Amino acid sequence: MNREKIRKYDMVIVGGGVTGTALLYVLGKYTNLSSIALVEKYSDFAQVNSNNVNNSQTLHFGDIETNYSLEKALVVKEAAEMLERYLLKTQNSEGLIYKKSHKMVLAVGKTEVKDLEKRFEDFKNFYPKLKLLNKQDIEKVEPLVVKKRNAKEEIRALISEDGYIVDYKALSKSFVENVLKEEGKDINIFLNTRVNFIIKNNGGYVLKINNKILESKAVVFAAGAHSLLFAKSLGYGKQYFLLPVAGNFYAANQKLLNGKVYTMQKDKLPFAAVHGDPNIRNLNEVRFGPTAKVIPVLERKNIKTFREFFKTTKFDFKVMATLFKIISDRDILGFIAQNMIYDIPFLGKYFYMKTIKKIVPDLSLENLEFKKIAGGIRPQLADREKKELIMGVGEIVGDNIIFNITPSPGATACLQSAKSIARKLSKFFGKDFVFDEDGFKRDFLENK
Asked: How far is CA 39 from CA 96, 186, 361, 376, in A?
């Protein structure tokens, strides 16, 4: 081995999406780690699920996500407020990172209206800016949500003016730009660089990347679905397998909505119900979705990850039993069947239009376009031992190594995840490790 090609670091982060770059920012700014490397296999940051075309560009606060319990919503709210603080004080060399927007969840029909009214009573003390709107109020804010709707159809909505449309790709770049301004830090970025393999070595790790060898005391994988692939290569996470859920979007190239409009979600489903979102890069375009289907790849539009999927998910009896238990639930089975229909050529668009009309009744079929290049993959974890889906962010902690697997709202929680990981590193590095948690709290957690 050519010793000149060995580079030593305190920390190596694998993955240049919003979670990995947020971690780089926090470790570079608020800890005493002096040498950190970030490794990203693509030529730029946030090319997979953090790319603005592959997600709904939403900063989730938990107030309008009706499949969140109050307990979960408050955790998400704290995470969102951290990122909100960052957004409000940060500029990016490429321009716009976010746009303020109202956000609304719409209830249609007596049952949904009743559930929404109860949610408002449960949540209003924790979200003082949240308002309950009747049909006339909704029409003032979102006229096309009411136009040509059946007059007998009962609707109500919860709305907050504190919503954000976020370009998470631009956000990722801003984390990198800002941390590189820190003095006294040796921070190296390796783009266009794959991790060929990783092995344990003398309490730390050795990573082979392209034509270099990296040695590190600790490693964090923030590589989405690929995090589980590397975890299993080191013997971790054997009880987990992946259901890669691909999301598609339809779009209307006209200004139908003034802000984000969500529909009511079901408690058992970790996947978002249909919602309408203005596109931050073209506010006259509204995207509707996402649809959802399980496909056997770890990255959308990358067929090469087909083989890697089967390395993370070996279809033995326990996996099949878990899948059977999951899809035997009537709500989940109905959701799967419904989304299969949406993928049928020509007919899929027709049936999905019925779902979208719940938001915009007057939308015509010819104004709706299927966005072939849009949509990412949600790396949904399942536990083959407990025979259940893992709700929320998945994380596997090993010996001086962490594997972060981030389905929605992973982008919202990027700074919260970074703080959590920074705390865990004190166990990895011992008493010599310093995390300026007071400084972090001052910047992101104190009252605005």
From this structure: 25, 14, 47, 21
